[in-house]
Design a protein that fits this description.
alpha/beta, seven-stranded parallel beta sheet, 375 residues, 47% helix, TIM Barrel
Length: 375
């Protein structure tokens, strides 16, 4: 663990909210907050030459990670990377085609390829851990760290979807065909991914990440029983293994986000995660009612497409979300009904988002958070 992991943080609202502690204002960070909607990001990407060259250069990674913090009043930084770094380090041959998204040269579409699969070589991911350390260093300002740094990984199931399919997809036909014809092979892939994701997150934490998030983008594609077995169960196992380290269990919040996962909120709350991410199809009020008195924080949940629209509507939707949250009961005295909540979008920011609309969103969050806390 780096010596400066517990250095004083100027703004620790995010970590407090992860632990369900009282905060003076609702913390906010945004999925994909460093990205193509920002002109400064596009300049850095052009300098790097390509997305992969950007992602594999720790200096550039730190530069783009801090860009949204320099522009906006945000409460956390998130490592700039990609969820597909792990299968790339397994030798699947990752590339990004202009306008087509990620592709693998060697997808897992034969039994031999699947049986030959090995845990990701962490030495090939050294650039990620170096980026974490670089970002932590660059977050220091006047002897204090500006905001906490979040590390992340794709979930074992989501990684498997890309590894089998060879690219993104709406239906993941190859993946589901494998799941329903050779579940033994799918379990083998997931077991390798569990080991890889666990080690990957451990090394991010050792390098300086102060919270880690599991992105389960494709869990919502599954049926009820399949989600529990093939998506949630592997994530629970990753969390269990991480929590074998007492320092991680006591000091490093774990966030779990399944897009379309509202149906499984009760089960997700038993995963060991400190925070459950929610997309825009879920109600915060219903989520709190479902969870009852459990001290599991919620993160979310405005539709990112709202940021493409009218600024008045952005403010209205933020107000509606806070009004709904305010109807929930605080878990115990001394807490606000707004505590145990981290504002975020229900998924990543669209590349077409006007940067000024993000500013309107953040100001609305601050305004509504303060208004409700002063009641």
């Amino acid at each position: 663990m780096p010596a400066n992991l517990d250095s004083e943080i100027t703004n620790d609202r995010f970590l407090k909210a992860c632990r369900y502690e009282s905060v003076d204002s609702t913390p906010i960070w945004l999925m994909r907050q460093a990205g193509r909607y920002l002109p400064e990001y596009n300049k850095t990407r052009a300098k790097a030459g390509s997305f992969l060259q950007l992602a594999k250069n720790p200096r550039y990674c730190s530069e783009v990670t801090l860009q949204p913090l320099d522009r906006y009043d945000l409460d956390a930084a998130i490592l700039f990377s990609d969820i597909l770094t792990i299968p790339d380090a397994m030798g699947l041959g990752l590339s990004f085609e202009q306008g087509e998204g990620p592709r693998f040269e060697f997808p897992l579409q034969s039994e031999k390829r699947i049986q030959d699969l090995r845990v990701a070589d962490m030495d090939q991911l050294r650039y990620v851990f170096d980026a974490v350390a670089e970002i932590r260093k660059d977050l220091m300002q006047n002897g204090k760290q500006r905001v906490p740094l979040i590390g992340f990984s794709g979930s074992p199931w989501t990684l498997a979807c890309y590894m089998v399919e060879g690219s993104g997809s709406k239906e993941f036909q190859h993946t589901k065909t494998l799941l329903y014809t050779r579940p033994d092979l799918m379990r083998h892939i997931l077991d390798i991914n569990i080991q890889s994701v666990t080690e990957y997150l451990k090394l991010q934490i050792e390098s300086g990440a102060q919270a880690v998030m599991l992105f389960d983008t494709w869990g919502g594609l599954l049926s009820h029983s399949d989600y529990l077995e093939y998506s949630l169960s592997p994530m629970k196992e990753v969390i269990r293994r991480l929590h074998e380290d007492r320092n991680i269990k006591e000091n490093i919040p774990i966030l779990l986000f399944s897009k379309g996962g509202g149906l499984w909120l009760k089960e997700m709350a038993k995963s060991g995660a400190n925070v459950l991410g929610m997309d825009w199809t879920q109600s915060l009020l219903q989520a709190r009612e479902t969870l009852g008195g459990q001290r599991v924080s919620l993160q979310g949940n405005i539709d990112p497409q709202i940021l493409l629209g009218d600024q008045k509507i952005i403010k209205t939707k933020v107000a509606e979300m806070f009004n709904e949250l305010a109807l929930t009961n605080a878990i115990n005295s001394g807490l606000s009904s707004l505590d145990g909540h981290i504002f975020n979008l229900g998924h990543g920011i669209s590349q077409f988002t006007p940067p000024e609309n993000v500013q309107v969103l953040i100001e609305a969050v601050r305004t509504e958070s303060n208004r409700h806390r002063q009641k």
